[in-house]
Each structure stands twice: as C-alpha cells, then as structure tokens.
C-alpha cells in the first residue's frame, strides 16, 4: 500500500534519483534508514520499474520525430525481435508496444540532426515491418514540457524539463557511452559505471557533472507504474487546424497550470499536439476532457488515444 510518505519520496526521486538518501530524508521528514527501506520496497513491488535519464537532445542539435506503426497479425515477441535490431541505431531513443485501444501498435521515438537522416531511419523501419504494416504516421516536435512528478506532491514546486531548438553542443564518444549506461540505469553507482566503461571513478564524476551543468542531462529519475499509485494515464495526439494558433497557446498554458498533466508536445506534421495526464477517476477524466474541448473547440480536426502496454527498449 502506497501512502503519502511514499509519494513524497517518489516526488524527490523524480527530481533527482542520484541525490543522497539523507537529502530525501530531510525533505520528507523521515529517518534515512526508513527512506532506504521504503525505496527498496517500492522497487520490489515494481512501483519503481527502472531508473533512467532525460536527455536534452535539442541542445545537441537533434530534433525529435515520433513514428507510429499500425501492424496486423504480429505478436509482441516478434515486434521485440525487430525492435532489437532497430534500437541499435543510436538515434532511436525508445520504443513502446501500444495497447489494442490505440489505433497503432508500436511507437518509436527518433532523434536526428536533419530530416534526411530521419527519412533513412523511417524507411529502414518501414521496410523491416513491411509484411505486417497497415499504416503509419509521423510528426516532428517543436517544443515540449515534461512535468512528471507534480501529481505526487502538488504542494511542492516540481522540476520541468523543456526541450526546444537551442544549440549544437558537441559530445565526446565517451560521453555518449556514459549516457547509454545511464539510460539503462541512472541509479548505478559511480564504481559500477567506471568498471563498465573501463575508466576511473573521478572521470565518471567529472563527466556527469559536466553533462548536468551544461543541461545535457536534464533529469535522473525513476520510471513509475502509475496504476499501482492509483492513477490512470491518458495520452492523446491531435491534428489541429493551423489557423487556431491562439487556441493551441491557451491549451499549453492550461497544461502548464494543471498538475495532472505530465507532458505536452507542440509538433508539426500529421499531428500538432501530444499530451498526457494522470487521473484518479472518471470524474477527473470527464473534467479534463471538457476543459480541453472548451479550450480547443473547433480547432481539433482529429484526435487519437494512445495507451502503452509495455516498454520494448
């Protein structure tokens, strides 16, 4: 059973899961030993599914492309086999198998430095799934805001990850290797990372500090099973009439001020908005849907619900 103290601990972990337990303990007003015990319990119960990082790819001159595939007559294990090949491409950041409620079956997030490279990757993926593919769609993000923890502790100010085009920062090959390991487990010890990357602990400490100070790593955080916390996540993508730009800005301002939302993306291409929120019950769902309809009104041409079944990579 998750209580308010567990939620407060999760809130602090989402701000930075590499911070000392003693600091979290101070924030939540519990002894450090109690906090450590509760974190281990949350991990054992798989409320904390894994630890990862949020990378500020636009600072590295990468744009995010979202690719959705509608597949027929294919099993999850077969999708997984294909995805393992696809995720060897460094620009592919994550893949999700979607629930049957969604029109599409697979979501792939791809970050590239130019549209030509994205076209190469998209073509390769579509060819890979050709015999199963019914349809697909893609769009490119312009800006995004990731809120994550607000619902867990509305009384405290939560960190916001903002992604927008902002530079051409260059990284060493060793930094990319470190990022890859931190994406797998951002809670890994310095010594474990040093051993894995065949370097010294001081080098790992120095490079993590460099990546944080330059806003390349925006967040070290746990991925949570929100259903076990009593929330249902709803995710939608919408195609909007481009003449309704003021309505889109009003909607983004609404998301900014409502703690139930976890992400918004303003995009170009087939879809113009991507957003997700957490609700406790159907009453909250109805309230949010009514608010969205009131704000966007006739601007919406088409909306699709997306629900994740499992993370494939």
Q: Can you walk me through this structure?
A:
Helix 2 (21-28) packs across helix 3. The protein has 313 residues and is of the alpha+beta class. The chain folds into 2 domains: 1-45, Winged helix-like DNA-binding domain superfamily/Winged helix DNA-binding domain (Arc Repressor Mutant, subunit A, Orthogonal Bundle), CATH 1.10.10; 58-148 and 226-311, Alpha-Beta Plaits (2-Layer Sandwich), CATH 3.30.70.100. 38% of the residues lie in helices and 30% in strands. It has helices at 4-15, 21-28, 32-44, 76-86, 115-128, 173-184, 190-196, 201-213, 245-257, 282-296, and strands at 48-55, 63-71, 92-98, 106-112, 133-146, 161-164, 217-224, 232-240, 261-269, 273-279, 300-306, 308-311. It is globular and about 50 Å long. The protein contains 10 helices and 12 strands. The strands form 2 sheets. Strands 2, 3, 4, 5, 6, 8, 9, 10, 11 and 12 form a 10-stranded antiparallel sheet that branches. The longest helix has 15 residues, at 282-296.
Name some characteristics of this structure.
313 residues, alpha+beta, Arc Repressor Mutant, subunit A, Alpha-Beta Plaits, 2 domains, ten-stranded antiparallel β-sheet, two-stranded antiparallel sheet, 38% helix, globular
């Amino acid at each position: 059973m998750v209580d308010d103290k567990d939620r407060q601990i999760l809130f602090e972990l989402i701000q930075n899961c590499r911070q000392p337990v003693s600091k979290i303990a101070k924030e939540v007003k519990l002894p450090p030993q109690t906090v450590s015990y509760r974190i281990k319990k949350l991990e054992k119960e798989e409320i904390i599914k894994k630890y990862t990082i949020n990378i500020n790819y636009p600072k590295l001159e990468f744009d995010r492309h979202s690719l959705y595939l509608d597949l027929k007559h294919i099993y999850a294990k077969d999708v997984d086999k294909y995805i393992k090949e696809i995720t060897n491409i460094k620009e592919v950041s994550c893949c999700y198998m979607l629930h049957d409620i969604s029109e599409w079956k697979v979501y792939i997030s791809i970050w590239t430095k130019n549209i030509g490279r994205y076209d190469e990757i998209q073509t390769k993926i579509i060819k890979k799934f050709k015999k199963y593919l019914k349809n697909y769609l893609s769009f490119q993000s312009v800006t995004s805001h990731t809120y994550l923890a607000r619902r867990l502790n509305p009384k405290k100010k939560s960190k916001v990850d903002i992604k927008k085009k902002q530079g051409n920062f260059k990284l060493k090959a060793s930094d990319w290797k470190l990022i890859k390991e931190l994406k797998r487990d951002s809670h890994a010890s310095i010594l474990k990372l040093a051993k894995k990357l065949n370097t010294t602990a001081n080098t790992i400490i120095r490079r993590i500090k460099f990546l944080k100070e330059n806003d390349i790593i925006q967040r070290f955080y746990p991925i949570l099973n929100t259903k076990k916390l009593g929330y249902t996540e709803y995710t939608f993508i919408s195609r909007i009439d481009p003449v309704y730009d003021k309505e889109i800005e009003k909607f983004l301002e609404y998301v900014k001020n409502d703690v139930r939302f976890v992400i918004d993306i303003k995009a170009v291409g087939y879809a113009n908005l991507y957003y997700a929120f957490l609700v406790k019950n159907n009453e909250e769902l109805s309230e949010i849907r009514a608010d969205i309809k009131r704000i966007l009104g006739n601007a919406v041409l088409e909306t699709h619900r997306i629900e994740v079944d499992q993370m494939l990579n």
